[in-house]
């Protein structure tokens, strides 16, 4: 095992250089680019503060509605996607690029292929993040979790991802080391998988510069979205960080990776199995049962490679446990790997239907995600920065004591964040499902909300602790940087790669592909593509998977405007539109949801968490005046509500000039509006709006027929009304 470990460590590459020098081979001098590493490191720290502050704001606003301020950009529905995008693509994304640009150059003994591409990638990514966040605050969103950015940003992401990939692959192709270390496999796998996921999920029909409709509808859109959403976690938050783990953990521990064989199994099993697991986010929904089953089976299978990778990292540290007490970098790595193991065990458990029936739509999912985000991504990024920045600035860390203090504050922050949410989740599920001896639901939905409010406060305190630790780290690193000087172009020497490298003695069977980056890229794409094809092709091509319901009709133009407003305000972040076939949900909300109900929903709005009740059967439940007053002041209709007010809906007007483009886009998506309907749709808007205006007037409420609140009321009153027209016998057949 020891020779195998040596072969796959960076120390082995240094030994090869020594051998080459002794053999008379000419060594080449070149320079690593540390400027691009510094740029991405600074961006990681900056966006970390921004993204976590947005998350803290969202956490307090859900506990105290007053924090929403009655201003559209500061409401939870808009702040939450800003938080998730800033943390995922800005903080974690910049950390990935920082680590890749640092480690890749050293692993292949070559400067990045193009300094210009590196700079375009850096500045393009920062501009994308800034403008994307501003667009989300302004309400421009596709309404798909982790993929909210509108179509121009999707194109920009694709271009920048290609630039990053070209620079990475170009660097690998001009390498001076024949063997591709395991970290590079994960970088390549990440690049091809994210490209595939992003392109497929982002296909949409533009309505205007900042508005589009998803190409997919209803059940199909849900499948594609969670195929993307689950694997965005897999291939943006997991595999690149595993690559960083395989580089930085051995470097920090000053030991080779524990098992080369485990790393091979870990890589190929993970990228093949992960892609199948997305449907476990849709258990008990209208998704076909066979797809749900596949998601569950492959989710359970994920435990083996995930834990193999975790143990590979932890066992690498086994000879450095005496240093863990003093070295904050190693502490962060230990907890990061532990959190990775916890999250990758919990995820498969949540895919079991019996567990999912309890966890889904509760705060359990939020707790689960943040074990990975705060512990795995956050702590490994912190460890990487603590280890790397002093080295590129040729200095020592300013304060090891501060770094250790950061570790304990951050760890306490995670504990205070997730434990109250697990507690809240169990409280939610137990209260939602509780019946009296007479067979009546024991608790109203709002009783659950008021019961768990203190737990939301504790969660926010945990977030504040975590953010405090990050601020302490930034001060520590700032003082570290001031004490040193950046080595912009770090000198290195290596022998050129022979045109026909001799086969290594006792070479492993996997060694063939480890020397062929193009073939490795192609095989990685095949491995990640199979699962998606198997799940999606039948769902799209086999008509019986999505039975139609004759009574379900397209949205009227006014309802379509109202739906756009619903999506814009991020209502899906707190409300679901999917009633599962459970006794308590049917008793609380009405008939369980059918696949055919959603054929005109571009995008789907099933949601993933119920801070508020499900809305799938809301239509006709309350009068128009109730919705008017509820949006103006939620507590006037529901005492104790945590929902913010939406005063701008009563002054802003719908833009009827966009109606023709909206109808044309829907027709292109297959929605059966009559020929030429886009030319007369606004007349139907006026007719329906006048009816709502008259209804509100009966309750002494005066509105303009073009007010946004009128369109939103039209949409809310439509929800679930089509299915109510279906006769029980017909529903059973469908």
Considering DSSP H and I runs of 4 or more, what fraction of the residues is helical? 55-70%
Radius of gyration, in angstroms, nearest whole number: 27 Å
Tally of helical segments: 29
Strand content: under 5%
**Main sheet characteristics:** 2 strands, antiparallel
Query: How are the strands ordered across the major sheet?
Result: 1-4
Which word captures the global form?
globular
How would you state the average pLDDT, rounded?
A: 93
Distance between the termini: 60 Å
Model regions low in confidence, pLDDT < 50 over at least 5 residues: 1-9, 728-734
Helix/strand-derived category reads: mainly alpha
| DSSP strand tally | 4
Can you give a write-up of this model?
The chain is mostly helical and 734 residues long. The chain is 64% helix and 3% strand. The protein is globular.
Write the layout of secondary structure elements.
Layout: H1 2-7, H2 10-22, E1 28-33, H3 35-63, H4 76-108, H5 115-137, H6 151-173, H7 182-201, E2 204-208, E3 211-214, H8 218-235, H9 239-253, H10 260-274, H11 289-301, H12 303-316, H13 321-324, H14 328-350, H15 353-359, H16 364-392, H17 400-433, H18 445-482, E4 489-494, H19 511-514, H20 517-541, H21 557-568, H22 583-589, H23 624-632, H24 634-637, H25 659-668, H26 681-698, H27 708-718, H28 721-724, H29 728-733
Antiparallel strand pairs: 1-4, 2-3
Helix pairs in contact: 3-4, 3-5, 3-18, 4-5, 4-9, 4-16, 5-6, 6-7, 7-8, 7-9, 7-10, 7-20, 8-20, 9-16, 10-12, 10-20, 12-14, 14-16, 14-17, 16-17, 16-18, 17-18, 21-27, 23-27, 26-27
Describe this protein with a few key phrases.
single chain; 734 residues; mainly alpha; two-stranded antiparallel ribbon; two-stranded antiparallel sheet; 4 strands; disordered N terminus; disordered C terminus
